[in-house]
Design goal:
By secondary structure, the protein is an alpha+beta fold. The protein has helices at residues 10-20, 25-33, 35-38, 113-116, 140-153, 161-174, 257-267, 319-329, 346-354, 393-406, and strands at 57-58, 82-89, 94-95, 99-102, 120-122, 125-129, 135-138, 186-195, 207-217, 228-233, 271-276, 281-285, 288-295, 303-307, 337-341, 358-365, 369-378, 381-383, 415-417. Helix 1 packs antiparallel against helix 5 (140-153) and helix 5 (140-153) crosses helix 6. 44% of the residues are buried. The structure holds pyridoxal-5'-phosphate (PLP).
């Protein structure tokens, strides 16, 4: 057992509180006591080994790729020229000097635990180029905190968040020419951590590789927003209290693919809405958090923007989710729009629809930013918000406000300039 990890549990709950950032005190208290975080008690190291940015080496490729027509790129299909790599070893508890070099296949042992036991976690973030050519990132500190949480869930070392982020920024600057310009265009950033010790056996990995790859991406929806239909799956469960649904670990995604394929083939739905428990409480969609815009029962002038709470530990704490909740709480949408984090059984959504109070549904995540939902197939019937096939007003306004912050149209501390 690795001694560095035996430091008591003071670190584990604040980990999560940090990530929750601007969510309410009530949620924080709940989250800190949730059993799903107790499991992390023994793995929080106070002092993460440092990643020395001053030793970063950049080896430029001699064979840069020709940049094709972005319109023909599908999400995640084209990779930029360079990648970042850093490795950690348990005996020395140090990270090697970071290296940026040609994007190329990795060489790892076929016994590496990332290939057998899913000792792997990742992040998804973007860099944008604004009208003046300035490169920007959106709340990257949130992604670093979440990556640290995911790594600790897998008994990997604590992450030097500042050091790692500096290296990522250097990679993004290096690949500046790969960042497409225009509304909805960006470069997708995929930080990844994998266990690479050359041994079989379900145990702590003794070697970790951190790598970061970049993929230029166009607007998620070529001809504006296109609302999707979701299948509320009552057979398969994505995550549960005490599980790892709140960590971005690869193991959460592989088992979701067969149910998603079934949703498409059997029900004509593009994605799965995951439920939990006998009350079929709403959790989230494959790689997006979900929001319901519902008129308040007593005062229909008030619109509640409802999403699942983090306290059960069965949803991923999305950066987009947190940004939407914070903007609403800060009054960006006016006093008649309120943010609500609560457990939401499907019957309440069915009831809201039949009362004519279900106004809009949307998903939220880095890839699509906001994804309007036109219907949810649940127990053989389809639930539709009153926005129908069109994009709802709240969805549209929130999207625009987020976009303007991300592309530096509005000045905001969430947008971090790299120049
Ligand atoms: C990444 C992800 C999200 C969205 O998180 P963002 O930080 O907003 O991109 C939501 N749910 C799941 C399961 C995810 O993997």
């Amino acid at each position: 057992m690795n001694r560095r990890f035996l430091k008591g549990n003071s670190g584990s709950s604040c980990l999560f509180n940090n990530l929750a950032g601007s969510t309410s005190t009530k949620t924080k208290t709940l989250a800190a006591t949730a059993s799903s975080y107790r499991a992390l008690g023994s793995v929080a190291a106070a002092d993460p080994p440092k990643i020395d940015v001053s030793k970063l080496v950049i080896k430029k490729t001699k064979t840069p790729k020709r940049k094709g027509d972005l319109e023909s790129y599908l999400f995640g299909r084209v990779m930029s020229d360079h990648m970042l790599e850093i490795t950690w070893n348990n005996r020395t508890n140090t990270w090697t000097n970071p290296v940026i070099s040609e994007h190329k296949p990795l060489e790892i042992s076929p016994a590496a635990p990332c290939l057998h036991y899913g000792i792997q976690c990742f992040e998804g973030m973007k860099a944008y180029k604004d009208d003046k050519g300035t490169i920007r990132m959106f709340r990257p500190d949130m992604n670093m905190k979440r990556m640290n949480y995911s790594m600790q869930r897998l008994a990997m070392p604590s992450l030097d968040q500042e050091g790692f982020l500096e290296c990522i920024k250097e990679l993004v600057r290096c690949e500046g020419d790969w960042i497409p310009v225009g509304k909805g265009y960006s470069i997708y950033i995929r930080p990844t951590a994998i266990g690479i010790s050359p041994h079989l056996g379900v145990q702590e990995t003794e070697d970790v590789k951190l790598f970061v790859i970049l993929s230029p991406s166009g607007p998620y929806f070529k001809s504006g927003f296109s609302p999707v239909r979701l299948f509320a799956d009552t057979d398969n469960v994505r995550a549960w209290p005490g599980g790892a649904g709140n960590a971005k670990v690869g193991g959460n995604y592989a088992p979701s693919i067969a149910p998603a394929r079934n949703a498409m083939i059997e029900h004509g739905c593009q994605q799965v809405l995951w439920l939990f428990g006998e009350d079929h409480e709403v959790t989230e969609v494959g790689a997006m958090n979900i929001f319901f815009v519902v008129k308040n029962k007593e005062n229909p002038k008030v619109l509640e923007v409802i999403t699942a709470p983090l306290s059960r530990g069965d949803i991923l704490p999305g950066v987009t989710r947190d940004s939407i909740l914070t903007m609403i709480k800060d009054g960006t949408m006016g006093t008649d729009v309120v943010a609500v984090e609560k457990s939401l059984p499907m019957r309440e959504i069915v009831e809201a629809e039949s009362d004519g109070r279900l106004v809009e549904i949307f998903g939220a995540g880095t890839a699509a930013v906001l994804q309007p939902v036109k219907g949810i197939v649940y127990q053989g019937k389809e639930i539709n918000p009153s926005s129908g096939e069109k994009v709802g007003q709240i969805t549209e306004v929130l999207y625009q406000k987020l976009h303007d912050i991300q592309y530096g149209v509005t000045d905001h501390p969430w947008s971090v300039s790299l120049n």
